[in-house]
Structure formats: structure tokens, C-alpha cells
Amino acid sequence: MPKFLRIGVHQSNVSGYTSKAWCVRRTGSTIFLKWGAVEVQGTGAARKVYWSRLPQEKTIRCRTAQRAQDYAKAAIARRRSHRYEPLTGAIVLRRRPAARSPEPKQALATILIVDIVGSTAKAAKLGDARWTKVMGHYYAAVRKELKTCGGKEVVTTGDGVLATFKKPAAAISCAAAIQKAVRTLGLEIRVGLHAGEYTISGGEMVGLAFHICTRVAAKARAGDVLVSSAVKDLMTAQSAVSLRDHGMHRLKGVPERWKLYRVMG
Length: 265
What we know:
By secondary structure, this protein is of the alpha+beta class. The protein has helices at 65-81, 119-126, 128-149, 168-183, 208-219, 229-233, and strands at residues 3-6, 17-27, 30-41, 48-51, 56-61, 84-87, 91-93, 107-116, 152-157, 160-165, 189-201, 204-206, 225-228, 242-250, 257-264. GO terms for molecular function: adenylate cyclase activity.
């Protein structure tokens, strides 16, 4: 995987600064991107580069190997001309000393997953610089609505955001608010919600409820907010929320068929 480090200061005599790294890998017709903030320690051959936090990742399917190869070449050329230098060493996630705490316990919550529709085409149309600005505004808008509605951000995945809520009504209200906010940026999103138990391990959400929510979101189209029957069952006392039957669906890798509902209005 070719890696590049943004040259923020002179590399040969400065240590202990924060910069940005970017990686690209091609497998057949698929491109895998990874980028994020890094901390640089040491100089010369002793230089070490650490991810400051979990990097963002994105997968781009180019249909043909030639298109993927052309995409990778163009992406690498852009980085070389944007004050990046090739990085040969590994980039690792710095492991902090583990605090003594009890084993993580399962929690029950409404899980929300937001995903941008057509992000690859949009990024290609706008170019790296403009797309980076748009994504900055996008994450700011999402986080503002999460704070307003009492949601807790768990992780970002490329152009997606995963969050949890104590109440399903708050999650649905937040989804609607996020949709309205990001439309001003020229973006369309799809949202999936599911209620169930989950565990946070190593900064990532694990458990069947998370996978179900991911599959629910995948069934949504641009502008849709889809919820599982588990969410509907918790909404019986919330007459202000209107749900329309979206039919029975087979969720990939999930046992049985699930009934989904589309949030109206």
C-alpha cells in the first residue's frame, strides 16, 4: 500500500509534530483508501509515524482493473504535488496504556447509521480540495444534530457515521434533522436504525444489533430513513412519528427475514 506523509515542517531536524498521512491500495478493480492525522516522532531512519486516532477508510469499486489502475495513478500524482512525500515505513496506531476498568458490558440502545449516497461520484466531480471542505461541513452538521438530540457518536467510517441514542424517537428526529442540514451542502444521505444490545470493544461496536443496523441502512435509498421492527415496537407510545410498512426483507448474513418501516414526513 503506497503511503504518503504531508510535509508540514522540515523533516530532517524536527520531531514530535502532528501531520497527515494518506494511503492507497489497489486490488483488481477495487481501490482502498485510508487517511487521517498522524504523530511523527524521531528523525531520519529512526522516524516513527503513528495514527493519532483511528484513520478514515473508504472503498471505491471502479468496475474494471484498468479504471482502478488509472484512479490510483491519478490519486498518487495529486498527493505528490500537494506537499506529500512518499512514506516507506509502517503507520501504526499508538496503543495507550490500558486503564484498569471492569469488562465492557452490553448496553441497550437505538443504533443509527448515516451514509452519504453517491459519495464517490460527488468527490470525483468536486475534486479533493473542495470535497475535503464539504466533508468537514458534513461532519460538523452531523455532530451538531447529534448533540442537540442527545446522540452519542461511536465511530466514523469513511463518509458514514454511527451513533447511539437512549430513545428511538430522539434517533428518528436526529435523522430528519441531519437530512435537512446536509441538503444545504448538496448531499443526499440514507439512514438505518435498529434497537438492540451492543458492546464497544477497542473503540468499535460489536454485536448482532450493529450488523442488523448496517443491513437496514443498506436497504435504504437516497432520502430514506428506514427502521427495523425492533424500533417500531419501542415507538408504540410515540404518535408523532409516522411509519409506513416497507415490507419483509432478507438482511445479508442475518438470520430470518425482517420487517422494515420507512419514516414519513
